[in-house]
Amino acid sequence: MGLFRLWWVPQGLPPTEGTYVRYDAEAMLAILVLEASRAGAMVIGEDLGTVEPGVRETLRERGVLGTSVLWFERDWEGDGRPLPPERWRADCLATATTHDLPSTAARLTGEHVELRHRLGLLTRGLAEERAEAAADTGEWLEVLARLGLLHAAGGGRGTSTEEAEVQAVHRFLLRTPARLVGVWLPDAVGDRRPQNLPGTWDQYPNWRLPIADAEGRAVTLEELAGEPRLYALVEVLREKGSGG
Prior knowledge:
3-stranded parallel sheet, globular
């Protein structure tokens, strides 16, 4: 969306004193699409948050995919319930999270709320934040169970309930018409920490965290290559190709 406009704040003033500065989106999109075509690449735009009217339509016309994150895909013009997979847009990368959001494990366990509480970032009471996060996650888990995507934990290999839920989230993404499905590598090992926590500067080590398991222990590339949880998630993604 930064090709269309950016929120500029004069130095020394608070964010509320900023304004949108607009760009020649048509020209910049043309250059972007041209260079992507020359490189044989596909362009994916981050159209999340406050998206002004016409942006997604323009991106689609230019062949630029959007980004759809599961937790945000609700029927906002209707009952606000989770959006069924068949109603997702096709021209997008469907994913469970991004670099600016909690890992799936953190969202499922509510640890993303605890982290923001420890850093003093909550704008409401901890109990209220916990309840809202749990209700949001609970609605999605109900949908996953109703669609038969939430397989029982266990399966002979010690799969935890949390891991089974992470797998179910990705089975849901495969049910959508999205042209691409993204997997956040920390979800493959149960990492609880976001790579970037918007709203922080020196309170949190943004972009400096090595991938870690559910206990916070750093995972080396060699260990990652033999991680059973990673292979189990890959098998879930393969289900699509086998008619699952």
